[in-house]
Design brief:
The structure is a single chain. By secondary structure, the protein is of the alpha/beta class. The chain has a single domain, classed as Spore Coat Polysaccharide Biosynthesis Protein SpsA, Chain A. Helix content is about 25%, strand content about 30%. The protein has helices spanning about 15-20, 35-45, 55-65, 65-70, 105-110, 115, 135-145, 210-215, 235-245; strands at about 1-5, 25-30, 30, 50-55, 75, 80-85, 95-100, 125, 130, 150-155, 165, 170-175, 185-190, 220-225, 230. A seven-stranded mixed β-sheet has the order 7-4-1-8-13-10-14, sandwiched between helices. A two-stranded antiparallel sheet has the order 2-3. It has a two-stranded antiparallel sheet with strand order 5-6. The two termini are about 20 Å apart. The mean pLDDT is about 90.
């Protein structure tokens, strides 16, 4: 099954990093967040990826073109220019790198992949900046059981600030950055049937707006509730939090 990862946005809220690299290439623990996302799918045996490139897409192409060499020991025979790789520690992935336009919106990027994806049926999709300890096989099973065109993963994001409960001017409870208790939002992990392409107009269509609204009105959008860990890397502060979790050896998205 194909897994589409949208990798083409500008990432303006993380401009400290994205001035020199596309957002999916911002590193967590010395590896691009894109690699962490792909490892999440790999753990559930989804290993065929289609990366929808845009802004600074050549950096992602270069990363994967040189990936095998970077993960291997190399012997170079200078006279003959022969190169031998040994002890490669590489994943068994198929990675399709597709330029979907620098200024194309999220829905437009998906639409540009129609000819590649539609013949193969159901496909999964996510963004190149979000991590979760999501059971992706359970998500797929849920989608199939619903029999709808699209399924979105609903999450409750962590609060940005500590929560205080006060009675008579006295703090009775202090919760440091608790998970939001009410209100589910899109966590960005989708499953789609090929009919979803009919709900996208053109390059300027944002996936999160008209297509989702039309699917909702048609009764074709299901929601899979994930109450576990989820974190999007929108800002430098988010990156630092993810780095701290990785450095502490407690990165929730790896379990």
């Amino acid at each position: 099954m194909n897994v589409v990862i949208l990798c083409g946005g500008l990432g303006t809220r993380l401009s400290e990093e994205t001035q020199v690299r596309p957002k999916p290439m911002v590193e967590i623990g010395g590896r691009p967040i894109l690699w962490h996302i792909m490892r999440l799918y790999d753990r559930f045996e989804f290993r065929s990826f289609v990366l929808a490139l845009g802004y600074k897409g050549e950096i992602i192409k270069d990363y994967f073109l040189n990936y095998h060499a970077r993960q291997s020991d190399i012997t170079i025979r200078m006279k003959t220019a022969e190169v031998e790789f040994s002890n490669p520690a590489v994943e068994d992935w198929s990675v399709n790198l597709v330029d979907t336009g620098r200024d194309t919106q999220t829905g437009g990027r998906v639409l540009r992949l129609r000819e590649r994806l539609a013949p193969h049926g159901t496909f999964m999709l996510t963004y190149g900046d979000g991590l979760a300890n999501l059971d992706l096989k359970a998500l797929l099973s849920f989608h199939r059981a619903q029999g709808r065109i699209a399924t979105v993963t609903a999450v409750r994001p962590p609060a940005r600030f500590g929560e205080l409960r006060v009675e008579n001017a006295r703090v009775t409870e202090f919760a440091e950055k608790p998970q939001v208790g009410t209100g589910w939002v899109s966590g960005g992990f989708f499953v789609f049937e090929p009919q979803v392409f009919d709900y996208i107009d053109d390059d300027m269509t944002m996936l999160e707006r008209a297509p989702m609204e039309r699917l909702t009105r048609a009764g074709e959008l299901a929601a899979y509730h994930h109450a576990g860990y989820w974190h999007a890397m929108d800002t430098l502060r988010d990156k630092q939090q993810l780095e701290a979790q990785w450095a502490a050896g407690s990165a929730p998205w790896t379990s």
